[in-house]
Amino acid sequence: MHKLVPAAIALALVLPVGALADTSSDIASLRQEMDSMRAAYEARLQALEQRLQRAEAAITPPAPSVAAAAAPRAVVASGPAVTAATPTAPASAAPVVAPVLAEAAPATPQVASAGGGANAFNPSVSLILSGLYTRTSQDPARYAITGWQLPAGLQVGPSTRGFSLAETELALAASVDPWLRGAANISLAPDDKVSVEEAYVQTTSLGEGFSLKAGRFFSNVGYLNAQHSHTWDFVDNPLAYQALLGTQYGDDGLQLTWLPPLDQYVELGAEVGRGRSFPGSDSGRNGAGMTALTAHAGGDIGASQSWRAGLSMLNAKADDQLLLATNAAGGAVTDLFNGRTRVWIADAIWKWAPNGNATRTSFKLQGEYLRSTRTGNLVYDIGNTDRPGAYRAAPSGWYVQGVYQFMPSWRVGLRTEGLDAGTPDYGPNAASFAGGGFKPRKNTLMIDFNPSEFSRVRLQLAQDRAREGITDNQLFLQYQMSLGAHGAHSY
Amino acid sequence: MTNRHCLFTLLAAPLLLFALPAHAALRVFACEPEWGALAQELGGSLVEVSVATSALQDPHQIQAKPSLIVRARNADLVACTGAELEIGWLPVLLQQSGNAKVQAGQPGNFAAADYVRKLDVPGQPDRSQGDVHAAGNPHIQTDPRNIALVAVALGARLRQLDPAHAAQYEKAQADFAQRWQQAMARWTAQAVSLKGVPVVSQHKAFVYLYDWLGMKEVAVLEPKPGVEPTASHLQEVLSSLKATPARMVLYSAYQDSRPSEWLGKNAGIAVVKIPFTVGGSEGAKDLFGLFDDTLARLLVASAKP
To answer: Which residue in chain A has the smallest CA separation from B211?
Structure first.
């Protein structure tokens, strides 16, 4: 009671003050609102006045040419649709015509040429066209990586010889609403198969550096994994990606990335997914078949250099994964793997361009190291021997590549890479496999010519020693073209 | 106890009024130096400006590098040219920034080209025409009248984002507008002799400058926008100059000077390096210096026999 009384008095004293503060802050905010409204109108008025002056100045030249005098009238009458008329006007008249022409455009000059109507909200569409000529000294149908057990459907090595269509990629992207954007990449394979490479929605509004993606996407592990094939610097992905991540790891799930509030670039990411592809296997379980953690940091060194480096980890579960292998006798067998795989990836890239202007010359050096541990059990020779046993392997792979743009439109690149199957522990199946110890190696040289930002022709030569005792000399001639929306590429 | 909590809350509440305006300066991330300089003119000490590119870089071709992503992440306002100039890199920056405030359509996303009348708007955009921009020529900063228009819009945007300092922004804007009008009057008077002067451009980057000064572009060294000049096209331009002579050839500070120098030597005309944006030359230290220096260079070149 004693305490309540002074409290009540204090409350009674404070409340009106609070109320006063409220009204005065209300007034202040109202005033601010009015001020900003007034400012906005003033801005528009000033802009309109200036336009009017310019229009008047342009319409009344001392002695206008016939074309210049006629064109504005025609344009004003029929609106922006006639903009095509400008290029045909004589060069001398163009500067006079142009200002007047644009005056006819609406006051809010937002993308008037977007096409209006129902199509105005169409997503941006781009289509990548790509084709190959391949020449190899060994038959690609018999391509294998000695000492490695990989799933049957996995594409490793060159796909075919001679002329072939490469992947055709259709990309669609647009804002969903003020809070989300969506994108899809549909891949049309040369064998007429259609696959959904990526199809996701992504938040734009979480703020605080957070971004959430849901759907199918390429995992953010490593450097090359998230990049679409048309942005690769070589025709093919490194062997390490082919043998450890099934060329490129994509999954259905969720991806959360966060940029902490720092002046230094740090990006942290976490992913959960179905585990639908190698090194996982699609098993339809309720839980996550894949989890991944990524961390990247980057920055500039002066005006001419920039870098990014990172460490990622990907876990995937495999149930009844069929693997093609070669046994000690040199025969082809199919094994069955059950277990889990953990892939660690360290990646780094360094780019240089004089004063940060990559138009004329630039250089980039990148490298990644991938190490995978597969633990579980392996049933040897399905359908014949059917012998189960514990299995543990720690294969690894790496590549280093440099790409130098020595003059506008021309680049040359060199890549060297290697694989190490490690010393797998086959348990009771040990006697069925050869000792191994062979380390595949590959060196690749490429030169590409980019007539514009949207087209590229590339020649690639490679010496591939993925098979023990066999050297495959490969030649590729490739074109990659982009139609439609101007793509924006990540670093 | 609960009463006392209420009391403390009531007493503490007004403190929030002091706490809120005390936050750090408005962080402006400008895509090009001209908008960084303009934001600095209009915001003074109220803004903290960071510029993504320098005058020595081609604004069409910038990489969405980590240092830019982190600056976009921390920005309150992203001020860019728009009109697809930054289409190859800004969308990636914004996507990866995780910053809701600066996404397209938000008050924190400002595109200067939305507030000016654009030239070279293609009727039927097609890439056979080179790297054309469907929204029109994006190099709007070469006309000081455009700077004036953008200043009005950017000032309004700063007041909208930071209403607590609206009066200060308004004052800075009025001050800038006055100085700019005076400068424009001076430049216009200085540039009278440039009216009608025929010129060659290396890239179609100066249409707004020509529109302002009444200069006439008779040829372009790039066969198509964004395509590097070829030897055969340079020869064509050289021979076309016999029929329609030009007085000078212009290129931007970030460009390779060799095509312009080749033409200058072979056609016997002046070669002019245009600073193009703030920082593009010794003299172009700020927006005023940019136009002072641009005009000085053009006048020197046009005075040559």
So the answer is: A95
| Chain A residues in contact with B63 (beta carbon < 8 A) | 306, 351, 358, 489, 491
Is B228's CB within 8 Å of A408's CB? yes
Instruction: Pick A113's closest partner by Cβ from B135, B145, B170.
Output: B135
Average pLDDT, chain B: 91
Name residues whose C-beta falls within 8 Å of residue A331's C-beta, 6 or more positions apart in sequence: none
Which chain B residue has its CA at the smallest distance from A51's CA? B117
Distance from CA of B167 to the nearest CA of A (A): 9
What pLDDT was estimated at residue B129? 82
Its pTM stands at: 0.81
pLDDT value at position A78? Answer: 39
What structural domains does chain A harbor?
26-103 (no CATH), 128-163+208-484 (2.40.160)
User: Which ipTM value was assigned to this complex?
Assistant: 0.87
Q: Which residue is listed with tokens 């009384």?
A: A5
Say if the Cβ atoms of A18 and B70 lie within 8 Å: no
Q: Which architecture, in CATH terms, is B19-186?
A: 3-Layer(aba) Sandwich (3.40)
Tracing tokens 């002074």 back to the chain, one arrives at A6
What is the rounded distance in angstroms from the CA atom of residue B283 to the CA atom of residue A406?
32
Distance CA B90, CA B103 (A): 10
A463-472 confidence digits (pLDDT tens): 999 999 999 9
Mean pLDDT in residue range A284-312: 95
Q: Does domain B192-303 have CATH number 3.60.120.10?
A: no
A-to-B residue pairs, Cβ atoms closer than 8 angstroms: 231
Query: Helix, strand or coil for residue A304?
Result: coil
Q: In this model, does residue B249 exceed pLDDT 50?
A: yes
| Interface touch B88/A487, C-beta < 8 Å | yes
Ordered by start, the domain boundaries in chain B are 19-186, 192-303
Which residues on A lie below 8 Å from B62 (Cβ)?
A: 356
Q: What is the pLDDT of residue B160?
A: 97
Please report the beta strands in chain B, taking only residues with DSSP state E, as ranges in sequence order: 26-30, 47-51, 77-80, 109-111, 198-201, 216-220, 248-252, 270-274
Instruction: Decide if A266 contacts A260 (C-beta within 8 A).
Output: yes
Task: Tell me how close the Cα of A335 comes to any Cα of chain B, in angstroms.
Answer: 42
Q: At what angle do helices B144-161 and A4-59 cross, to 10 degrees?
A: 170
pLDDT above 50 (res B15): no
Q: Which residues pair with A444 in a beta bridge?
A: A415, A462
User: For residue range A142-164, what is the model confidence (pLDDT) as tens digits?
Assistant: 999 998 999 988 888 998 999 99
- Look at A39 and B156 and tell me if their CB atoms are within 8 Å: yes
Contacts of B65 in chain A (CB under 8 A): 298, 300, 306, 308, 351, 491
Q: Give the pLDDT of residue A101.
A: 36
